Amino acid sequence: MAEIVVVFDFDKTIVDCDSDNWVVDELGFNELFNRLLPTMPWNTLMDKMMMELHSHGKTIEDIVQVLQRIPIHPRIIHAIKAAHALGCDLRIVSDANTFFIETILKHLKIKECFSEINTNPGYINGEERLRILPYHDFNNSPHGCTLCPPNMCKGEIIEKIQDSISSGEKKRVIYLGDGSGDYCPSLRLKDKDFVMPRKNFPVWELICKDPLLIKAEIHEWSDGEELERISLQLINKISLGESAQNISADCKLETIREPFPQVLLAHR
Ligand SMILES: [Mg+2]
Ligand SMILES: [Zn+2]
């Protein structure tokens, strides 16, 4: 079932808060963060905040310990493991950073479930300080998308994923997200794909303004239980549709023109 690519946002989708805010708040630097936020892009500020933490004696180990107790709904871990066990290709597209995401996924023992993590580079430098860099080099090669922040256009990343899987035409994408940054990739999904916006969160509100702009089938979710139930239902439906196709091909029946059962499209 590598026919299905499940793309997850990270903050407020896999984990139940924003990992950047979580680290800054838990280490007691939210006041400084809020004061500086109007003066620079979020991603630049996170790099500066890591410098501030370092100069105030906070170590990498302090950051790791905070990351390891980030809130996450247990059903989301189940959903990820189940989708992986079913053979789906799981990927992350996130505006957090590699260090935060990998630290959390390793701690939860689900890092191996993901084939790719697309996010801002985060690494420990020679002074044992965490550096966070932009995904796109916005000074030298801006991505030019007006919907997205300068450091990352998730739509561009989705197109890269679509290009990489386009050899198998039957591949379907299920995209899960919550934030306004998840709207651009939602717009680029194809009509056989699925988008799962988190209900009452920014991407859901943007989609609801004009759902006809979205080609993919829309399935909202509110919490970890719904994320698990709905995503696994979609995976099952897609696989059933595909096996029905395979059976018809094997029996040399007339080709099914619509590769997706008509009843499922009624939700659009
Ligand atoms: Mg998010
Ligand atoms: Zn964009």
Helix-strand layout with pairing:
Elements: E1 4-8, H1 19-26, H2 30-36, H3 42-55, H4 60-68, H5 74-85, E2 89-97, H6 98-107, E3 114-120, E4 122-124, E5 130-132, H7 154-165, E6 172-177, H8 183-188, E7 194-197, H9 202-209, E8 217-218, H10 224-250
Parallel strand pairs: 1-2, 1-6, 2-3, 6-7, 7-8
Antiparallel strand pairs: 4-5
Helix pairs in contact: 5-10
Bound molecules: magnesium ion (MG) and zinc ion.
Any key phrases for this structure?
268 residues, alpha/beta, Rossmann fold, six-stranded parallel beta sheet, 10 helices, 15% strand, globular, binds zinc ion, hydrolase, Phosphatase, HAD_hydro_PyrdxlP_Pase-like, HAD-like_sf, phosphatase activity
Task: Give a description of the structure.
- The protein has 268 residues and is an alpha/beta fold.
- The protein has a domain at 4-15 and 73-96 and 144-267: Rossmann fold (3-Layer(aba) Sandwich), CATH 3.40.50.1000.
- Helix content is 42%, strand content 15%.
- A 6-stranded parallel sheet has the order 3-2-1-6-7-8, with helices on both faces.
- β2 (89-97), α6 (98-107) and β3 form a beta-alpha-beta unit.
- α5 (74-85) runs parallel beside α10.
Low-confidence stretches: 248-268
Number of strands: 8
Average pLDDT metric: 90
Helix-strand makeup class:
alpha/beta
CATH architecture name of the domain at 4-15 and 73-96 and 144-267 = 3-Layer(aba) Sandwich
| CATH topological fold name of the domain at 4-15 and 73-96 and 144-267 | Rossmann fold
Approximately what portion of the residues adopt beta-strand conformation?
5-15%
**Rough outline:** globular
Helical fraction equals 40-55%
* Fourth CATH level, the homologous superfamily of the domain at 4-15 and 73-96 and 144-267: HAD superfamily/HAD-like
The small molecules bound here are: magnesium ion, zinc ion
Q: How are the strands of the biggest sheet laid out side by side?
A: 3-2-1-6-7-8
CATH class of the domain at 4-15 and 73-96 and 144-267: Alpha Beta
The number of helical elements comes to 10
Radius of gyration: 20 Å
Distance between the termini: 24 Å
Order of helices and strands: EHHHHHEHEEEHEHEHEH
Biggest β-sheet: count, sense, barrel?
6 strands, parallel
